[in-house]
Automatic annotation (TrEMBL):
Pfam families: AAA_15
Gene3D superfamilies assigned to the protein according to its UniProt record, in alphabetical order: P-loop containing nucleotide triphosphate hydrolases
Name of the protein in question: AAA+ ATPase domain-containing protein
Organism lineage string: Bacteria, Candidatus Tayloriibacteriota
Native source species: Candidatus Taylorbacteria bacterium CG11_big_fil_rev_8_21_14_0_20_46_11
Domain AAA+ ATPase: 24-270
InterPro entries linked: AAA+_ATPase, AAA_GajA/Old/RecF-like, Bact_Antivir_Def_Nuclease, P-loop_NTPase
């Protein structure tokens, strides 16, 4: 490992925040409640990195380059044409630009801005050209390969970057879902994360220490996880140290929990740095997690689900059994629910559960051990439970085996290719009830709703109607045994 910060001696706000904080090589996270001086801690490091009795490096006489990024303060991007006009091909200006990136007396209002995706590609190519080692066309090819590899660590996207000799300018595109797009076609979150990742990579030869303030701004949970995994691997691959302030729920995952310092108030008199979050901190940690944690800390009984169908079924069970439980949807589907469940594995609360469909992808016991109170349905999805012939007969006494077979065959295989093998199996004599648990029941239920209610938009009303016909004593025992956890809440 190259030079890195071992310790910082903090004395802020007339002693309110006074403590020695130790850091390690690699990735270091700083989290905690609002108003505990997390960003000010980064400012302190950046401002006093040259003062050996305040910011203590592994090698206190060696090089102490530090770069500070803050996506939430990121300045407006400069167009590539402006970049080329500003820097041209003047080596002196290029060197000045790099120097401006480094070793600034950083204040809260002027963290180093993050440039656009295209700018980092152009600057990287120009560095190769200015070293007189590459022609522009060759430099562009090298940069494309290099940054494409970095991008793949976060997204399954591709970079197209080339020198347009006819117009004397670089051109860049993104390849997403096998389609070539302009960079401005990316979402705000995608732009934010790719720009930051490229900024970090571009600066690798100029610094050993990165300070990053809330890199997860504008990102959803999936992108947050990808970003922090990149930061962790980047530190290992390039022997760097990254100290970052975050409100992300990533801090609850085993991989990152041990890398995190937790800041909290001590009796409202002083600020302490803890190695773990306290029960008082759980309700205050900001970010998207606050919606979940508030519910838990107020002792509500909570079940988090992946869609409206889950919510409707659970709400009916709760109503029938007269239970006191709150149901909340986590938007984003199964993987989001699993991510929340994993994040809560290390939080000391028991009255929260996470429900996901089976999707014909059963988790092993080993895989389930990674999650907190994760319930996976044995059937494909929750609608499959309502396709039980005995439940449907409570609604109408007809031959439901034949009716469901008819509904399955009415689904167009062109639009739902997964149904084709089922249709073939039925043609060859397979029994409906042998297959029904492994089919996407939501498609069949929509067809059933259209037929019985003449409007597929009444799906949830129809679900409630069927649930209300099930005898209370048979609800969990006979038809919904996997939902027995509700009676324990």
């Amino acid at each position: 490992m190259k030079n890195y910060i071992k310790q910082i001696k903090i004395n802020l706000w007339e002693g309110i925040f006074r403590q020695d904080v130790n850091f390690t090589e690699g990735l270091n996270l700083i989290s905690g409640t609002n108003g505990t001086g997390k960003s000010q801690l980064l400012n302190l490091i950046a401002t006093y990195r040259g003062k050996a009795d305040t910011v203590i490096f592994n090698d206190n006489v060696g090089k102490k380059d530090v770069i500070v990024f803050s996506p939430k303060r990121n300045a407006q991007k400069v167009l590539v044409e402006n970049l080329q006009t500003q820097f041209g091909y003047d080596k002196g200006k290029q060197a000045k630009a790099i120097n401006q990136l480094l070793n600034q007396q950083i204040q809260d209002q002027n963290f180093q801005s993050i440039k656009s995706i295209a700018e980092y590609l152009v600057e990287s190519a120009e560095l190769l050209v200015n070293k007189s080692t590459h022609l522009k066309v060759d430099a562009a090819r090298v940069v494309q390969t290099e940054y494409d590899t970095i991008l793949q660590k976060v997204f399954n996207y591709g970079i197209l970057f080339k020198w347009d000799s006819e117009n004397s300018k670089y051109k860049s595109r993104i390849v997403k879902n096998n389609k070539q797009l302009n960079l401005n076609d990316l979402s705000e979150g995608e732009n934010a994360i790719i720009s930051l990742v490229f900024a970090i990579y571009f600066s690798r030869d100029f610094t050993d220490v990165y300070l990053i303030d809330e890199p997860e701004v504008h990102l959803n949970w999936t992108l947050e996880e990808k970003l922090f995994n990149f930061l962790d691997s980047f530190c290992v691959d390039y022997e760097k140290q990254i100290i970052t302030v975050t409100h992300s729920r990533i801090i609850a995952l085993d991989q990152f929990r041990s890398k995190t310092k937790f800041l909290s108030w001590n009796n409202k008199e002083s600020i302490l740095v803890n190695e773990n979050f306290t029960p008082e901190m759980i309700s205050d940690i900001a970010g998207d997690t606050i919606k979940i944690i508030q519910g838990i800390t107020t002792k509500q009984k909570l079940v988090y689900v992946e869609d409206e169908s889950h919510k409707v079924i659970l709400e009916e069970i709760i109503k029938i059994l007269d239970l006191d439980t709150n149901i909340q949807i986590i938007s984003g589907g199964c993987e989001f629910v699993k991510s929340f469940s994993k994040a809560f594995k290390n939080i000391p609360v028991e009255n929260v559960y996470f429900l996901i469909d089976g999707d014909n992808k059963p988790l092993t016991s080993s895989e389930k051990s990674e999650y907190k109170n994760l319930i996976q349905l044995e059937k494909y999805c929750v609608e499959n439970y309502l396709l039980h012939p005995e439940i449907l007969k409570l609604y109408e006494d007809v031959d439901w085996d034949s009716k469901i077979k008819e509904l399955i065959n009415s689904i167009e295989a062109k639009t739902k290719p997964a149904i084709k093998p089922v249709q073939v199996a039925l043609e060859k004599g397979a029994k409906v009830m042998e297959l029904i648990d492994f089919i996407d029941g939501s498609e069949i239920f929509i067809k059933l709703t259209e037929e019985k209610k003449h409007d597929k938009k009444k799906k949830y009303d129809f679900m409630r109607e069927l649930m209300q016909k099930i005898p209370k004593e048979d609800l969990l025992r006979k038809y919904f045994p996997e939902f027995n956890f509700l009676s324990n809440l």
